[in-house]
Structures are given as structure tokens and as C-alpha cells.
TrEMBL record:
InterPro entries: AAA+_ATPase (IPR003593), ABC_branched_ATPase_LivF/BraG (IPR030660), ABC_transporter-like_ATP-bd (IPR003439), ABC_transporter-like_CS (IPR017871), BCAA_Transport_ATP-bd_LivF (IPR052156), P-loop_NTPase (IPR027417). GO terms for biological process: L-amino acid transport. Belongs to the ABC transporter superfamily. Residues 2-234 form the ABC transporter domain. This is ABC transporter ATP-binding protein. It comes from the Bacteria. One of its GO terms (molecular function) is ATP binding. Gene3D superfamilies: P-loop containing nucleotide triphosphate hydrolases.
Length: 235
């Protein structure tokens, strides 16, 4: 579904992403893990058309590299950005409606999709009229994911959903990712929290200094010594 080949991204003289190749097939959850500054967000921004890049990115068999972000969203890719950029001055419900902005959905479809999101995140249902900006970090992350789901994406990209959240909240968010996965939504999950990411993913790629240094099934990555030592806090 998503085929990235030989991707390079530079910021002036900083070569942040080097020759990255990565695929996500329909129905898969694929994770891209790596530590701070490895180039994860840069890769995501290149996929979403937010940064100039070299190489090739195909989605559904068509080249998308260089397309404006709105065309990429219309093609069925929804991204939850790092730092969850929800609209702080809009209510939960208004934020969710904004997620469906690029679709031509009827009132009843919107209502049904909203109920689906509220079913995934009951906490949001309890807070429909609360301003986004007054929600806790975990609730804002739920809202950001809910808003992306309102676009009815074929491919969901999550950029570090665990960032800055307490372990118990991270577990909640990952339980929901597991539920979404069970419903067959293709997902690219960018994470620093390798243990959580590999627990929900089918396959994973490890990015270091802008380069993919390992890729394998999540099961095998979890048991590789080098991944265990560097990312899973053990030997
Ligand atoms: P983090 O988890 O901290 O966000 P990351 O893996 O997402 O890390 P990137 O944000 O993609 O990493 O950064 C990759 C490299 O590119 C880093 O060395 C970073 O300093 C550099 N970089 C990122 N954005 C810019 C920018 N706008 N201008 C210059 N250098 C940048």
C-alpha cells in the first residue's frame, strides 16, 4: 500500500534521512522505531508532503512524493502529528468534526462515525463539550487519534503517540491501537517506545542516524540482542 524507496531528506547540510526504504502492506501495522533525532518525524513529514525529499514514495501504486498535503489526505492517509496538534479553542465534538472536513459525508454518516470514535474512547464521549486545550495530555492524544479516524483513512500514521504520557495512559492508547488493528486499519506507527510499539506491530524498522539498520517481523526484532540492548532496556 505504501512503498518508500531510497528516501533522502536534508535540512541544508544536515542529511537527516538517508536512503530509507520501507513498505506497509494493506492490513499491516508497521512500526518505525528509533531514538531521539533518528529521523522518524522527518520521514513522516516527507510522506505527508510537508518536506521536500528525494527518492520515491508510492501509495496505492501511485507516486505521492511532492504532492501537497491536502491531496495526500484526500488519497486516504491521515496523520496524527507528534505533540498532538488538536484545536485548543474548539470543543471535543468540533475537533472531531474537523477531522471529517475533507470528506463529503452526510449528517448521518458523520453521526455514526462520531459514535464509533466515542465507542473507542469513552473518555471523549464524556467530554464532548469540553475545550480541546483544557484536556489532559492523554485525552488530547485520544482526541487527535479520534480526529484522524474521522477522516476514514485507509492508512493511519501515528507519530509518537506515547510521547510525554504516563505509562498507564500509554497502555490505554496502545489498547486502542490494538482494537483499531483488529478492525484491519493499515497503520504506520512511529515510536521511541520500542517495547510498546513492537507489542502491537506486525513488522518493524529500526532507524539510527537517518538510516534503517534493522527490519524484521516484530516478534523477531523483540528477540534480537542488538534491539533488546539498545531499545528494550535489557539484554
Ligand atoms: P524525535 O523523536 O526527537 O522527534 P526524530 O527521530 O523524529 O526525533 P527528527 O525530528 O526527524 O528525529 O530529526 C532528525 C534530524 O534532523 C535531527 O538531527 C534533527 O536535529 C534534524 N532536524 C529536524 N528538523 C530540522 C530542521 N527543521 N532544521 C534542521 N535540522 C532539523
Amino acid at each position: 500500500m505504501l512503498h518508500i524507496r531510497n528516501l533522502h531528506v536534508s535540512y541544508g547540510s544536515i542529511h537527516a534521512v538517508r536512503d530509507v526504504s520501507l513498505t506497509v502492506e494493506e492490513g499491516e501495522v508497521v512500526t518505525l522505531i528509533g531514538s531521539n533525532g533518528a529521523g522518524k518525524t522527518t520521514t513522516v513529514n516527507a510522506i505527508c508532503g510537508a518536506l521536500p525529499a528525494k527518492g520515491s514514495i508510492e501509495y496505492g501504486g501511485k507516486p505521492i512524493l511532492g504532492l501537497p498535503t491536502h491531496r495526500i489526505v484526500e488519497a486516504g492517509i491521515a496523520m496524527v502529528a507528534e505533540g498532538r496538534r488538536i484545536f485548543p479553542k474548539l470543543t471535543v465534538e468540533q475537533n472531531l468534526r474537523m477531522g471529517a472536513f475533507s470528506r463529503r459525508a452526510s449528517r448521518s454518516e458523520l453521526a455514526r462515525d462520531m459514535e464509533y470514535v466515542y465507542g473507542l474512547f469513552p473518555r471523549l464521549a464524556e467530554r464532548k463539550r469540553q475545550m480541546g486545550g483544557t484536556m489532559s495530555g492523554g485525552e488530547q492524544q485520544m482526541l487527535a487519534i479520534g480526529r484522524a479516524l474521522m477522516a476514514k483513512p485507509k492508512l493511519l500514521i501515528l507519530d509518537e503517540p506515547s510521547m510525554g504520557l504516563a505509562p498507564i495512559v500509554v497502555r490505554d492508547i496502545f489498547d486502542t491501537i490494538r482494537t483499531i488493528r483488529g478492525q484491519g486499519l493499515t497503520t504506520l506507527l512511529i515510536e521511541q517506545n520500542a517495547a510498546m510499539a513492537l507489542s502491537v506491530a506486525d513488522r518493524g524498522y529500526v532507524l539510527e542516524h537517518g538510516e534503517i539498520v534493522h527490519h524484521d517481523t516484530a516478534e523477531r526484532l523483540k528477540s534480537q540482542d542488538i534491539v533488546k540492548k539498545a531499545y528494550l532496556g535489557g539484554s
